[in-house]
Design goal:
The chain is mainly α and about 150 residues long. It has one domain. It is about 60% helix and about 10% strand. Helix 4 packs antiparallel against helix 5. The longest helix is centred in the middle third of the chain and has 22 residues.
């Protein structure tokens, strides 16, 4: 990372690859979750998108949040993410809230905002994340977090 004149750090842009994440991350996710084949992983500054699906600006913001959460201990973060449901929920709520906030900044249609929020609730309540929270609770927390900023 480069320091700016104001003392803040500048992080390089995310790299997007079509390969799966490192084997230990992929295997850990496969053992812990119900994967559909459309998953996207962040490992440091790299977004792994093996399915080749479209990565929207809000979704890249979500993955950028995970990059920032991982800090300098990427493997330590992944170990905790896979083992600790409370940690995983906290990390995903932050990333999904950022994703929704970015979507809402670019979208003015309230029906589309609600549909996007419902999609987030469905994702967070699915086996992809280990069914860590009911859909309605996830939607409420993401919507509430969006309004804080």
């Amino acid at each position: 990372m480069k320091a700016t004149k104001q003392g803040a750090t500048h992080k390089p842009p995310m790299r997007i690859v079509s390969s799966p994440p490192p084997k230990h991350v992929y295997d850990g996710c496969r053992e812990a979750f119900e994967l559909s084949g459309a998953e996207i992983w962040c490992y440091g500054n790299t977004i792994h998108n093996p399915s080749g699906g479209h990565l929207s600006f809000p979704l890249i913001a979500h993955e950028r949040t995970h990059r920032d959460q991982q800090g300098d201990d990427i493997d330590g973060w992944w170990e905790l993410y896979l083992e600790d449901q409370d940690f995983r929920l906290q990390q995903e709520m932050e990333a999904h809230t950022v994703e929704y906030r970015v979507f809402c900044l670019r979208q003015k249609n309230s029906k589309l905002k609600l549909a996007y929020l419902e999609n987030i609730g469905e994702r967070l309540s699915s086996g992809t994340y280990g069914s860590i929270i009911p859909k309605e609770a996830a939607m409420h927390m993401v919507a509430k977090g969006r309004k804080k900023s």
